[in-house]
Amino acid sequence: MQVLMFVSNPFISDPRVYAEAKTLIQAGYEVAIIAWDREEQNPPRQNLDGIEVVRLRTRLLPKRCHFGSLLWVGLNLILWQRQAYRQALILNKEKPLDIIHCHDLDTLAIGTRLKRKLGLPLIYDAHEIYGYMIRGTVPYWIANIFLWLEKRWIKKVDRIINVGEAQKRYFAGITNKPISIIMNCKPLQSLEYQPPDKEGNFTLLYIGILHRKRAIPMLIRAAKELPGVHCLIGGVGQPGYVQALKEEYSRTSNVVFLGTIPFDEVIPMTKKADCIFLMVNPEDLTSSIALGNKQFEAMVCGRPIICTKGTYSGEVTEQEEVGLAVEYSEQALKEAIIKLRDDPELRERLGRNALKAAVTKYNWGKEEEKLIALYNSL
Questions:
Q1: For 167-180, what is each residue's pLDDT tens digit?
Q2: What does pTM read for this prediction?
């Protein structure tokens, strides 16, 4: 069966979409992805481990147009959605599609239109509560429009996928469509605890989205010049924000910016680290109710994590005793880094607990069974 997915990113560092696509391929499905290469820096077509990727580029207005970046993004999003719809029809002529799988709300308009045209089953994979996620970056009235659109478009979908219980409770309140929870868990790497294969400084690692809702500047300031601490930061984000981070870390001697990290290098780098960083602003609703990729990467590698107290991630961290959940402040973070740096026995105990949690609860093997069951139900 032929599956077509949509993502509004260039699909170079989206581990959830990659994991789902790979699982479906291994189960006998064929998967193509239409992505948005808004920075125009990636191949237009690519076969990535059996996944056929088609990247579309849009440039309706100059990137720094005088109307403002918000208008630029909005108009180009609409243009990309139209291009993606036409590209989907081309792919359908080449090889008839069987299932449409939309990742996040900004792709769902394409899926509902295709469903009307082709009569195919439609899966809505809501990684976030989108309207809440964009609050703070757009005016409230725009965020509320997206919440309204979601309630309207969701009537057309056949199945909904959420990443956790909090999201499921929200969607269950606005629709009676079947909902499955598929967490961002990672494949098990080993059943036995293995310490970091390295010598030298205490290594603190963050690889992920570089966004203001993640406390990356706080991490840089807390780790700055701490004796015996080596901090590694990698990922993707808005160019302006990434440049500001580069300028911040350039003033330190022990923080290194890695840039974009390929899918297959994240887990090996996590294994080499002593601790993983995942602190988010507890006042941001979307971040505070989620379990991030970093949490699951740390677990399967048997590494402790530092999270924010009062968030869902912090709650799981404390329940499973897999790391430290601290107050959202530079001083609290600094104290947590020092505590883990100076206590290797604590690091090992938390790391062993992390691996145990992965083996018993939080691994991709359990999640992919749910994904395949959902697809088979179609």
A1: 999 999 999 999 99
A2: 0.86
